[in-house]
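Retro notes (design track)

What went well: tokenization of the new backbones is finally stable.
What didn't: we kept losing track of which sequence belonged to which structure.
Fix going forward: every design gets posted as structure first, then sequence, in one message. First example under the new rule, 179 residues:
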């Protein structure tokens, strides 16, 4: 398992040893960028109130990891910050940053007994130093497009330069952007 770099403004030490170990194990799997190793720890009903299930979520993660690898990244570091938008205010956000490209992608993760129950993208968060950050816009848009594709929807709108520019502007303004 690769060395796991975690920087945090969340008090991880305040977690019980069991929860701390589970969180570190989950994040280490994400740092490896290997969907096959993540699959067993994602609940079958992940995101049950949303549209994506386990295998659709894994497909989105696979494409995200491919984006990192195509950008020359061999691993990602993980920084834990907090959500600064209205969707998950003050929740822990896990920001993955490529070791070569410096691209980043952030998500909110809910777990129970070591199993991921929810995984949502985050478009506006702050680091442990309270510096506001946004995810790489193209990676974020590609993830939204993959979700629509997995639902059998029309993804052509994400190929339009006008739509991409509008979404980039919205993310740069710190707005919550969903599909």
């Amino acid at each position: 398992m690769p060395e796991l770099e975690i920087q945090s403004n969340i008090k991880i030490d305040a977690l019980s040893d069991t929860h701390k170990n589970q969180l570190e194990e989950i994040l280490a799997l994400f740092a490896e960028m290997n969907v096959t190793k993540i699959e067993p720890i994602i609940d079958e009903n992940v995101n049950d109130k949303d549209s994506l299930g386990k295998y659709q979520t894994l497909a989105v993660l696979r494409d995200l990891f491919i984006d990192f690898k195509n950008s020359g990244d061999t691993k990602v570091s993980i920084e834990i910050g907090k959500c600064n938008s209205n969707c998950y205010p003050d929740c822990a956000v896990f920001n993955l940053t490529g070791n070569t490209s410096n691209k980043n992608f952030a998500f909110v993760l809910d777990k129970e007994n070591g199993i991921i129950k929810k995984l949502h993208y985050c478009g506006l968060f702050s680091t442990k130093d309270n510096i506001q950050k946004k995810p790489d816009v193209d990676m974020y848009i590609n993830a939204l497009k993959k979700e629509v594709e997995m639902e059998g929807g029309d993804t052509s709108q994400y190929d339009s330069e006008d739509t991409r520019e509008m979404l980039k502007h919205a993310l740069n303004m710190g707005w919550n952007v969903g599909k």
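Added context from the reviewer: The CA atoms of residues 82 and 92 lie 5 Å apart.
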